[in-house]
Amino acid sequence: MNRIARGSLLGIEHMEAAEIVGLLKLARRMNPFKPRPLLRGKRVLLLFYEASTRTRSSFEIAAKSMGAMTTLVLSSGSSIEKGESLLDTAYTLRAVGADLIVVRHPNAGAPLLMAKHLDIPVVNAGDGMHEHPTQALLDAYTISRHKKSFKGLQVVIVGDIYHSRVARSAIHLLSKFGARITLCGPPEFLPELATSLAPGLHITRSVEEAARKADVIIVLRVQKERLAGMKIKLQDYIARYQMTMTRLKLAKRDALLMHPGPIIRGLELTWEVADCPQSVIVEEVRNGVPVRMAILAKALGRAR
Ligand code: NCD
Does domain 17-130+287-299 have CATH number 3.40.640.10? Predict the structure, then answer.
């Protein structure tokens, strides 16, 4: 087997807890408005095969604010459209001088494949239904700004868990630190098999039961682009699982309402919930910048 390029961040599952703590501490020292030029002279390639707003822009701002040069390559309008393979694209980006590649890809394992064939760090910005490690890190960072400890924290994840790389990475991360995780959704979005993701996971089909006593509720988008062949009626989903103020009020008074975005108001959550005082949705996005600054600095061996 090929070695994985040093500095790569591919997923949370195999990360040591100490490494996660180190990244979160480093993120706390990053000030996006007074950045240190830690990445001066570095070239960061952003390779996106799937749509992205938050992840892409925050990686770009994180890299640029530390003095790196960034280049964006999208699947549309690049030679990927002409049929160039993932590895040939990766070799091309290395050849033009990339020092690090951030990649989002519809197939699970794409960043790992690149990291096995390149000698520069690869950072996973979301691979299919597998992992989204930087989202889990920014969510952990956000939770840590409001809650004393992850240990014993009642975290509920509601919605399209099956298709969600965000859920997978969050489950791996929070369970490493002793959070008590409840997954909630209809069988199409939450097969019983999901309990095998981490020890001690609890599953419920009732959003009311899930919300009761929650410290953190993470609502997920219904991933319409990955629903091919599924017979889920959105009206039924809304009736049973949409996060409403009535349902949110069952949680602890100081519970956090989270969502990785993009949010679809009126589907997985109401307008009111999206903008309520407990919602930290915008804060999650904001925290994406210092967290990704820490990730890039660490990956390129410039963490100080
Ligand atoms: C998520 C993703 O792409 O996995 N978005 C994000 O990066 N914040 C979630 C989603 O698309 O629903």
Answer: no
54 CB less than 6 Å from ligand 1? yes
Please tell me the distance from the alpha carbon of residue 145 to that of residue 31, in angstroms, as a whole number: 15
Confidence (pTM): 0.97
Q: CATH topology for 147-279?
A: Rossmann fold (3.40.50)
- Preceding amide of 262 cis, omega within 30: yes
Asked whether 175 lines ligand 1 (CB < 6 A), one says: no
65 Cβ closer than 6 Å to some ligand 1 atom: no
- Show the low-confidence residues of the chain (pLDDT under 50): none
**Cα 125 to ligand 1 centre (Å):** 9
169 CA distance to ligand 1 centroid (A)? Answer: 12
DSSP state of 269: B
| Domain boundary assignment for the chain | 17-130+287-299, 147-279
DSSP bridge partners of 181? 155
